[in-house]
Design brief:
This protein is an alpha/beta fold. Helix content is about 35%, strand content about 25%. The protein folds into 2 domains: about 5-145, 3-Layer(aba) Sandwich (Rossmann fold), CATH 3.40.50; about 160-279, HUPs (Rossmann fold), CATH 3.40.50. The protein has helices at about 15-30, 60-85, 100-105, 130-140, 165-175, 200, 205-215, 230-240, 260-270; strands at about 5-10, 35-40, 90-95, 110-115, 145, 160, 185-190, 220-225, 245-250, 250-255, 255-260, 275-279. Helix 1 (about 15-30) packs across helix 2.
Length: about 280
């Protein structure tokens, strides 16, 4: 289980630099190739008020020119950022399709996708909401979601694995293995309401032994909670000072509407550390 190609989404938001920095750090540690995917916005971009000169006669041509120039600026920022860090094999892919379609298609030729957490307060020229949900459910690849606040220079030293015995949780756990440092601390945590006995169905001892055969020594904790599972999980993340959460993602598609499970939706909305999520 190795990571050889990492795809990071490039956009016109203030957090793009933090996303690239973490993706580059992982690429360096994994000996992986880093792909900066840059949708140029020609199909789904919006033009900020005042960006175009008044009195123009060809709005479409001027809009396309603005979006191309903006894409050039994002691409140059990506190249400049990587010039200032240790060498990492990389490429810039500028694409003309919609952000959502291009991310899903290119994610399928990658081992790990790095996206930013949805930030309702952040200005963006690309009005794509629920991007993480779409990619997580449709791409068939693990997604590392970087919070919209905070600095994250590395992940995988102090990890909380949310374990419920499900297929998504098992996939996420397997996909997380390359990210775990050799001396990492791993907490295999389950959460359930009072009276819900789950230990047998979760196969906790077998899961711990499986992790051990991969060189991961996990401590186990069972959390019986009377608050919401998402709130309890995020509280433990804070208590443990975890630098990464590994969890399965739940949801389904209604045509192009992504309907996430309650815990998945709440964690993605309230997360404060990177989350590796897989479906």
């Amino acid at each position: 289980m190795t990571i050889k190609t990492i795809l990071v989404h490039l956009d016109h938001t203030p957090r793009c630099q933090a996303r690239v920095a973490l993706a580059a750090q992982i690429a360096i540690s994994q000996g992986a190739h880093l792909v900066g995917l840059l949708p140029n916005g020609l199909l789904d971009g919006t033009i900020p008020a005042g960006a175009l000169p008044s009195g123009m006669t060809d709005y479409i041509a001027q809009s396309a020119k603005y979006l191309r120039q903006r894409a050039e600026g994002i691409g140059e920022a990506f190249r400049a950022q990587l010039r200032d860090c240790p060498p990492v094999p990389h490429e810039l892919r500028e694409v003309e399709g919609t952000t959502l379609d291009e991310l899903i298609a290119h994610a399928r030729t990658s081992d790990l996708v790095v996206l930013g957490q949805d930030d309702p307060a952040s200005p963006s020229d690309i009005p794509v909401r629920g991007l993480v949900a779409h990619v997580m459910l449709e791409a068939g690849r693990p997604v590392l979601v970087v919070p919209y606040a905070g600095r994250f220079d590395q992940v995988g030293k102090n990890v909380l694995m949310a374990w419920d015995g499900s297929r998504p949780a098992a996939v996420a756990m397997r996909e997380a293995l390359p990210l775990l440092a050799s001396d990492c601390k791993v907490k295999l945590a389950s959460f359930h309401a009072p009276g819900a006995m789950q230990e047998k169905s979760l196969l906790i001892p077998e899961t711990v032994r499986w992790l051990g055969r991969h060189g991961v020594q996990a401590a186990v904790e069972e959390n019986v909670v009377e608050i919401g599972i998402a709130d309890a999980l995020l509280s433990r993340v804070s208590d443990l000072a975890s630098d990464l959460v590994v969890m399965g993602g739940y949801g389904h598609s209604r045509l192009r509407e992504m309907v996430l499970g309650g815990v998945t939706r709440e964690v993605l909305a309230q997360m404060t550390v990177p989350v590796l999520i897989a479906h």
